[in-house]
Amino acid sequence: MKNQKRVILVLGVPRSGTSVLTKGMETMGVSLGPECGSQDSWKKQDLWEDPDFHTLNLTMAHFIKGHERDILSVTNEQVEMLCEEGFLAQASELLLQKFPDNMPLGIKDPRFSILLPFWKKVFLHARFHASFIIALRNPWSFARAQTQHQEQSFSMWISYLLSCLEHSRDHERILVDYDELIKNPGHQMKRIAQALELTINPQYLESYCTEYVNPLGRHFHEPSSLVHDDNYCEQFAIDMYSQLLKVAQDNIGFQELDVSLKKWESQFREIDSLLVLAEKNNFTIYEIKKTLRQIDASIHQAHKKMTQKSYLIASSCLKIHQRELEITSLLREQEERTRQLLKLKQSLEIQNRLIAS
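The structure corresponding to this sequence follows.
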């Protein structure tokens, strides 16, 4: 590992504390890349994501199925397809471009979790040593924070965590629960540093704990007593979370999850076809929304053009009306002057008659 460049990925479902964890890596001498150090929108929103990695992941997700992949992990066939299409070389070049001198590189993007089989090939190809921080969040809290149907949210939670657990085997990795992180950020940073063999900077850690981590920013903190017996994916997620939380609290190790992990993977394969159908439905909805946005844009543009033309017509009519008023005024002045001339003419004729007589 000493002769290899090192990358640390923050994995997990969105809204599970991945941004807070990513920022925390700075306390142990990990670079988040040049983009995250600049004053751009990504930093201002506290995303701590490099936009180039985000764009590349989104491009690959679109390439695989023509839409945003949001539930299932990529298959081996899809990984080969991405490599053959040139994404392996592109991703390797981007990774080397972003890598800082004499520091590990920390990167985070939601789709790393389901594109992890591809990125592991990239790390091998570019000769990077990879370590993983896996964010864990109470599935009820995650489902509440999502906009889609709750059952789909639980499916997504399960899929992301299974992908993270399966593809991070044989690597340095650590599981961090979001609620535990908010409760005691200093302890969690020390756990990460120990697991990944990094050194904490006490000054940076103090600033991170007191100035950055905000318990009030934790939305949708759900009690674990809300369970619906008729929701299979919810029950599935609850079972997973109860076991994974033991790992995050250092009560058991990853190796003690082997039996459970095999059971979870088997259970997940049973609903795989339903999730594929859900992704197809998501794609259909995405395309419909895209078409509606295009129609709305066309209507807005047509309305804008009509408004502009109406304005021009109204402006021309106003000018014509003003000219008509001016002409009417001139005609009245002309009539008044004609009357005055007639009066003068009559007055002269009377004077001429008086002189003649």
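The mean pLDDT is 84.
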